């Protein structure tokens, strides 16, 4: 592929970047002199390159989808977008293969009882049956007996519709989304401390820092392309601190790797703050000018000297002192974290403890100095901004705030009395399904049978529903348990926006028409709304119409999208919100004027008290089970477990354990928790704590890590405690078999993705020290 040489000149004159108007950071945030996406052409006759972004993680790498003369996606090219600079990870390289995959659903599936087999039906029959079941359940048991669960891999236009559809068409309070399993602990901490829910700095600021701290994030595997920023900072001489129970690929390169015991993060960070205070390394001027609650936080930190925290965390006390000095003494320091410190019953406190450290040292709101969360799902940021979260309305408004409710009711054209109150979280909804308080459910872009903790409880909850419909483009494990499955489009068959981990809104473009019989999620929700009698509120012919209403609904809020248009996104490559007007350049870096989004403009520091994980250790369960992702797969694996190259790279889960337990690579190891047991091949490595077991979570039962995890929740964010539960390991006779992904009736499992699943050994690629042995 080659670029049209005239395009660069067009770009430079078409989108000037005036430094007198652009806020600091904007020049680094996007490449104003780059070649615009829509000026590329292909060398092959009849081939088109469609600029878009990857459908997977929150980095949102730019890519081109290759489209043949017949209008079908058949390949991918990296794109020189300033997020990824021509880089794609294994998932991004293979993502296009799902678009025309033989497992695609192309007709609605239906059955009136779970005792029956699915059969293909017309759209009218599937829609009519769904609407009749909604009406029957709500007529008999009330509106709140029906729920809706959305997803954070949907475009923001669709997440906006999920929240509106639940409250206006279904008239239920019960709506939430699978981002509840992702970033809500960080969201809760950010709102408490800063009054805004997003990262404070763009990725490009990492290149400017003198000290980078990464907590609970396996960047090299979960966000591979983001490592370019880590290596760029290192090339400039930045120091690197990694907090993780495992010696991940990035941790192996760190100046300090703190292999703390899972579930002890807030004790560690509060002790680091203790050392910062004791050694006079706080920025007292910054604290006096910009923070409240400092004296209370300081008093609590006094109770966490290094000796106490070291005993809690299972690390040398000297490491705590080293981290404190390295981070506080750096002229510019940044902290980024992810699920490793967020997936806890104290997830909000863990995030707050990092914020307390950044604030105490004055490392906020400057180029190369700040704080951020690395988003897991592609729209993990945007997916929680505009109303599909149980307690939020569009623009991040609170559903508990009377003025916020009035504003949205006016935009939606409903009476305030018609807007339901706040609902419950995703896991809580499953418990309500178990109790038959919620009797009907629609799921969109989620797979709880793999992604939620404590599978037995999840299966019981879903089985207790009288009616369940699921939207998907593959038959997921959850969809296979439903009454109706609606076949919907992939990301390449529709257009819309996502907000990445920087809160940069980017535009995805449609590359091909969907297969015959497939509809967009937008069309299905609008058609259901019409049949439920709310069609006048859902007159949206396409994503652009939804986005225009979303922009209006967000205007004047903290999460202001009003100044963002499709045209501006095409021209600029992305705009960070808040962006209140169409001539506003966006806000890539927060707090540069020293003010937060609280009315007083201050950082509201919060006291943090460490408490043990919810699943107690005992003689029967003396070790910690922790879970996470691997580079070849994504979330529940419904997409990636069907792509041959990714299955070949990582065909099955494993149990990562320390050599001190006496296992050899590939030997069966039974992992036992209070929820059950499963047998995995051992991956023996010195890169994990002896008291910890790691299992990746992308597979269903009987190889599902989340059949073993605990469904304890953070009391504020309601995120499950995936990252720590008590366990033991035992020798076993036979490794549990990896099941094939479900397929529609009349289809057989795609052979290319089945061959590698029978390999009983762990991945050949080294995951850490001591993993090269395969015998």
Describe the protein in words.
The protein is an alpha/beta fold. It has four domains: 48-94, N-terminal domain of TfIIb (Single Sheet), CATH 2.20.25; 109-180 and 379-511, Rossmann fold (3-Layer(aba) Sandwich); 183-373, Dimethylsulfoxide Reductase, domain 2; 623-753, Barwin-like endoglucanases, CATH 2.40.40.20. The chain has 23 helices and 30 strands. The strands form eight sheets. A seven-stranded mixed beta sheet has the order 7-6-20-19-18-8-9, with helices on both faces. α9 crosses α13 (317-329). The longest helix is centred in the N-terminal third of the chain and has 19 residues, at 123-141. The protein is globular and about 70 Å long. It starts with a strand and ends in a 44-residue tail after the last strand.
According to CATH, the fold-level topology of the largest domain is: Rossmann fold
Main sheet characteristics:
7 strands, mixed
Assign the CATH architecture of the largest domain. Answer: 3-Layer(aba) Sandwich
Tally the helices: what do you get?
23
Helix content: 25-40%
Please report the distance between the alpha carbons of the first and last residues: 43 Å
The radius of gyration is 25 Å
Alpha-beta content class: alpha/beta
Portion in beta strands: 15-25%
Mean pLDDT figure: 92
Count the domains. 4
